[in-house]
Structures are given as structure tokens and as C-alpha cells.
Amino acid sequence: MSEWLVLALAMVAASTVVLTVAVLNNRRVGEDDDPSETPDVIEYMTMMIGVVYAIVLGLAIAGVWEGRGAAQEYVRQEAQALHEVQVRSAVYPAEVRSRIRADVDAYVHHVVHDEWRAMSEHGTLTAEGTRLLDRVRTDVTHYRPANDHEGQAYQPLVDEVAAADDARSARGQSAGATMPGVVWFGLVVGALVTVGLLFALQIRRTFRELLLAGLFSVLIAFLLFLIWDFDSPFGRGISATAAPFLDLFPHAAGG
Fold first, then answer.
1. How many beta carbons lie within 10 A of that of residue 12, not counting itself?
2. What are 43-51's contacts with CB under 8 Å, separation 24+?
3. Distance between CA atoms of 50 and 52, rounded to whole angstroms?
4. Spatial separation of the C-alpha atoms in residues 120 and 174, rounded to whole Å
5. Contact call for residues 125 and 172 (beta carbons, < 8 A)
6. pLDDT tens-digit map of 208-253
7. Inter-residue contact 86 to 106 (CB < 8 Å)
8. Which of 22, 141, 142, 210 suits 3 as a labelling partner, its CA being 20 to 30 A distant?
9. Cα separation, 249 vs 111, whole angstroms
10. pTM to 2 decimals?
């Protein structure tokens, strides 16, 4: 069953139960009932809806911020692993060491200048990046150590390449939007309901009330924009950056 169908059925069922109970209760009210003696619950309901929506907004912001932080951490782990590959390959012969470092540099350059753009625009990794990282793996795994010193460095190098590959995969999984459509539906509808309830309080046209209503609406719009901006860790303004690569591979900053 579609999640949208489940949501629609749940909303219809909840509203039907509430309206049915209200109608039945209204029929039981006697003619001598005085509504003025009944506490006004409109303000209380408005306050509770606002509080619930604020909690939902806070959870959504925390979720997308955590996703952005995790994406940045994947970038740092990948850059650090590749840096370790370059440094630890120093024990290998000059020809092998130069080939490994050149292939690592080529991969980093591609990530910073090409793959980053692909993640930002399409939310995916590139086939060329996969090919370049496979070439680094081949350089490391196909070399046969000539002595014990090289043999001791072999397995750590293999492990670092595996760590870089794992971090790259996690980076690719973090490239797209993380908030499901049903959550966005709830956030937008909740914003409309919360702002719309201002009119249930019979807001007047005084400057002070209009100013507060406007500021309240602007605040909700800003928070929704913040969630939207954080929702794509590599694609929008406040996004994860390639700084870890540029810090460890400064020459990759060139075009």
C-alpha cells in the first residue's frame, strides 16, 4: 500500500472520528446550555498546534543538519585515506611510488573539479571517478613486495584504499535529498495550518498585530528554507565542501 494512501486514510479517519464525536456531543447539549460558561479552547488548541509544529520543525532541522555533518565527515575520511596511501607508498620503489601518487592525484583532481559538480547537479557519482579509484586499487594490490619492509606496508595500503572506497560510496549515498516527500507534505501543510490559525484568533489590522503576524510567517518560511537548503548536502548554499581534499592535496585546487 502506498504511503500516500496510508496517510490519506489516517487523516480522513482522524477527522471523521473527531467530527462524529463533536456532532454527537452537540446533540446531547440541552437548550439551557450557556456557551459562555465553557472555557474557550481555541487559543489553547492554537498554542498546542504551534508547539507540535515547532517540535516537528526542530526535528527536521536536526535531521538534515546531521546528514550534512555526516556527508562532510565522509569527505574527510576519504581524503585522509587517500593521503595515507600517498604517504605510506614511500617505502615502495620510485617507479611504483610515482605511479600510485600520480593516480591518487588524478582521482582527487577529478573529484574536486568534476565529480563534485555531478553530485551538486545530479546527486550521483561519476563513472570516471570509479575508474580512477579502481586504478589506484590496482596499483596497490598488484604490486608484489620485494622485501619484509615493503610487505609490512602492503596490507595497510590495501586497507586505506578500501577505506577510501567505502567513504566514497557513503559520500555518493549522501549526495541526494534525504527528506521524503511525505515529510515535506507534512511540513508545508503544517506551516499553512499554523499560520492560518492566526485568523482563528480574530487578528485585527493594527500595526502591531500585523507586524507580529508577518514576522511569524517570515520565521516559518525561513526555517522551511533552511531545511530545504540542508536537505541536499552537496547541492546548495550551505553544503559540504571539498576542503579536506584541498587541505591534504593543495595542488588539486588548480584547474
1. 10
2. 43/201, 45/197, 46/197, 46/200, 46/201, 49/193, 49/194, 49/197, 50/194, 50/197
3. 6
4. 11
5. yes
6. 777 887 888 888 888 888 888 888 887 766 667 888 988 898 887 7
7. no
8. 22
9. 12
10. 0.76
Give me the amino acid identity at 143: Y
Q: In the numeric block, which cell numbers belong to residue 59?
A: 526535528
What is the C-alpha to C-alpha distance for residues 251 and 83, in angstroms, rounded to an integer? 13
The pLDDT tens digits of the residues spanning 136-195 come to 999 999 888 888 888 888 899 999 999 999 999 999 888 877 788 888 888 888 888 888
3-state secondary structure 158-224: HHHHHHHHHHHHHHHHCCCCCCCHHHHHHHHHHHHHHHHCCHHHCCCCCHHHHHHHHHHHHHHHHHH
In SS3 terms, the chain reads as CCHHHHHHHHHHHHHHHHHHHHHHHHHCCCCCCCHHHCCCCHHHHHHHHHHHHHHHHHHHHHHHHHHHHHHHHHHHHHHHHHHHHHHHHHHCCHHHHHHHHHHHHHHHHHHHHHHHHHHHHHCCCCHHHHHHHHHHHHHHHCCCCCCHHHHHHHHHHHHHHHHHHHHHHHHHHCCCCCCCHHHHHHHHHHHHHHHHCCHHHCCCCCHHHHHHHHHHHHHHHHHHHHHHHHCCCCCCCCCCCCHHHHHHCHHHHCC
8 Å CB contact between 78 and 166: no
